[in-house]
Each structure stands twice: as structure tokens, then as C-alpha cells.
Amino acid sequence: MNAVIPLEQKYSNKRILITQNQLINFAGSEIVTLEIAEYFSKNGAEVIIATNSLGDPMMTRLSGLSNTEIYVLPNVDLEERLDRNPVDFAWIHHQLMPRSLFSKKSLEHTKYVFHHMSPYHPTEFPVFSEIEANIADAILFNSPETERETFRQGVLADIEGFEGVLGNPSPDIFLRIGNNRIQKRETPKKILIISNHIIPELMEARDILQSRGLEVETYGAQTDTYKLIEPSDFYDIDVGVTIGKTVQYAILYGVPVYCYDHFGGPGYIVADNYDSSRERNFSGRNGEKKDANTIVEEILEQYTSARIFFVDMNQNQVDEFRLPIKIDEIYQKVMKHRIKRRLVKHSQIVGLGKVNELNKIIQEILRSSDRDYHDLEHVKNNLEEECRNVSSRLESKEVLLERVLNSVSYRVGRFITSPLRFIRYIFMNR
């Protein structure tokens, strides 16, 4: 019988490097990086995170991880550290690679995993694909769509390592077991909208649902509730309206999902659209745009069939989205894998470094733009509030003036003074 390894010792004595272009907001690939780092950290690994841009709120969350250090590139200390003692496992996002990963010691010791998380975003594309083809033990994609679109463009030929779909899995903290996975209500009462895009039709649908007596909460970057999604956020929720990774949180928790956002969407995740939705990472790109009334009617009228689909979801379907299972499978497969690494040209290493420098500059420009936008938004909100206050004061004065004009004393006064005004008019116009 094999000995059971305690959870906290599973990756003890292992050194893991994770790279990510930016770590600032609670969004997309940043959350993927956080959850992978959390998993390795909690399981005893020494985790090193390298990024081009670091800021809150993500910085504070990452700083709380045990056995974890964060470096902003370029960083001489990190390069020297990796030269002295190469990591066991390098998990690469956005082709962000410190030069020391190309040293002879690293190429002999380190296992390399490249992970791509979008079929269309430029920073996710393998610009120097030959580097990956030459040194990767594994090349992963967040969905079959991303995998297909990447290879369709003719890159990543002659791969020495293996490639496959990781599937954007979620931490087990979202997992609920057995009958407790599904809410008991036969009709929806509480709805949670999660979106960093806040499109008009969803906001209008929210208002309609609230007018019909349903409780609707909205989380996201442009709302009053901007936070990492936690299992407690799904407690007593009947429907989650969202896309992407949050769909998988809901699947693990057992909350029926209405898949819709800025790309549009198929509506409720059910048997008829499950495969096409999963194929596109539950992004909504397998659906169409809808107006607010259509969204409301579908949420209310199609809830029963969606609930039945989630009740009947089997354990294999749920396990497909469990991060511990997927990461352990990848790690074990990679650590057993043996490839003959091919030479990486010096010009490619220099070129990759320049691309990373450019990405860093772009991130700083975008970050500055975001700050300017939020500052202007703050000024706009203050001006709107001031205008509302001025308008309110004017309305009050208009009401007071109307009362004065309609008062008996005002009418009597005008009657008494009318001869004097008539005489003044004659003299002024002589």
C-alpha cells in the first residue's frame, strides 16, 4: 500500500517559479496565478513569483501567502538567486522569463510549463514560439478554443514536450458535496451577477428583476462590491450570472449559471450548450447578444431545466474543474517527462527580453490610464453630486417662490402697489 502524503508535505522541498505579466487587479490570469501560487504554497513548496507590474489589491493578497516571495522584473537579485539554485518547476505565463531560466544549470534541472489563457489577447500568444517548442515539458491552454486557435496560426511546431488543456480549474474550497450542492428552492429568489464589464443590458435586467421582487446582488470592478469571489458569496444564491472562471466556481458549489456578459452568451448552462460553452472557457462566445427583457424571461422561465442539469451533473464533470486534481496531474506528468532540450538562440533570448520590456511599458501606460480614468470618474461623480444638490436647492426655492406668488399677502401687496407701478411706467417711457 502506498503511504498517504500529508497535504502540507505534498510539495515540500520543491521550488516553484510562477511568472505573470501583471499582478494588480482581481481579474483573469491574475487570479489564475494567485490560485496556483496558493495551492503550491499550502502544500509546502517554496514559491517565487516574478511579474512586470505589481500593485494592490493583488499585492496585499499575495503578500499573505506563506513560503512565497515576489519579484518585480527586471531584478538582479532574482537572476543571481536562480543562477545559484535553479527552481524545480517553472510555470510561465505571457512568455515572461528571467534570463537565468536559460542558463545551463536551469536547462538541465528545471521543468518548464508554458500556459496560454486566451485565443485572441496578444500577450497570451507565443511570440517566440520556437523557445517553447525547444524547451517546454508541457504547453497548456485554458480551453480547447485557445489550443485550436494557437495551432491554427502555424506556431509551436515540432514540440518536444506534450500539450493539452488545463481547463482553468478552481480551488476545492468551492466544492460542496452531495445533496448540499444544490439549493432547495424550486423558483429563483436570489441572483448574483458577477462581471468586471457591467454591460447595459445586464444592469437593466437587474432593475427589472428587482422590480419583480427578486433579490439581485452585483459584484465587479465597476460596482460597489469589488473583491475576490469566495464560496460564501454563493451561499443561498439560486442563479449566478457570469462568465469564465466564475462559472466553474459555481459548478463546484452547485449554483445554476446563466452564462452572459460582454460577448453575449448562450444563457443557462444546460446539456444542449455545455460542450460548446466548455470549449470556449464559458466565455459566452458560443451565444448571442440579448436585450434585457429576454435575459429576464430566460432567467425566470428556464430556471427549472438549468437546476435539473446541475442536480444531475456527475462527479467526473465536477472533478474536471478541480484545481488540485489538474495541477497534480500536470506536475506528475511533467516531472516524469524527459526531453532533449534544443539550443535556444541568443538572439531569441534577447528578443524575448525586449518583448517583456515592451509589455512592462504597456502595463505602466495602462495603469496610469486607469488612474487617470478613476480620477476623472471621481471628479465627474463629485460634479454630478454637486449638480444634484444645486438642482435640489433650486427646486426648493421654486416651491417657496410658488407659495409666495400664490399667497394672499403677495396678491394684496401687488394690488396696493399697482398704481405706483403704473405711474413709474409712464414717467420711464416719456
Q: If helices are DSSP runs of H or I spanning 4 or more residues, what is the number of helices? A: 15
Using the coordinates shown, work out and report the CATH topology of the largest domain. Rossmann fold
Number of strands: 12
Structural class given helices, strands, pairing? Answer: alpha/beta
Main pleated-sheet profile: 7 strands, parallel
The CATH architecture of the largest domain comes to 3-Layer(aba) Sandwich
SSE order, as H and E? EHEHEHEHEHEHEEHEEHEEHHHHHHH
Amount of beta strand: 15-25%
Overall mean pLDDT stands at: 86
Task: Label the overall shape.
Answer: elongated
Rg from Cα: 29 Å
CATH class of the largest domain: Alpha Beta
Tell me the CATH superfamily of the largest domain. Glycogen Phosphorylase B
The N- to C-terminal Cα distance equals 119 Å
Number of domains: 2
Strand order of the largest sheet: 3-2-1-4-5-6-7
Proportion in helices: 40-55%
Low-confidence parts, pLDDT < 50 over ≥5 residues?
A: 1-5
Report on the structure:
The chain has two domains: 9-169 and 322-367, Rossmann fold (3-Layer(aba) Sandwich), CATH 3.40.50.2000; 175-319, Rossmann fold. The chain has helices at residues 28-42, 58-63, 76-84, 104-109, 129-135, 144-152, 200-211, 245-253, 271-279, 292-301, 303-312, 315-319, 323-336, 346-405, 408-428; strands at 15-23, 46-54, 68-72, 89-93, 111-116, 138-141, 162-165, 190-194, 215-219, 239-242, 257-261, 264-268. The chain has 430 residues and is of the alpha/beta class. The chain contains 15 helices and twelve strands.
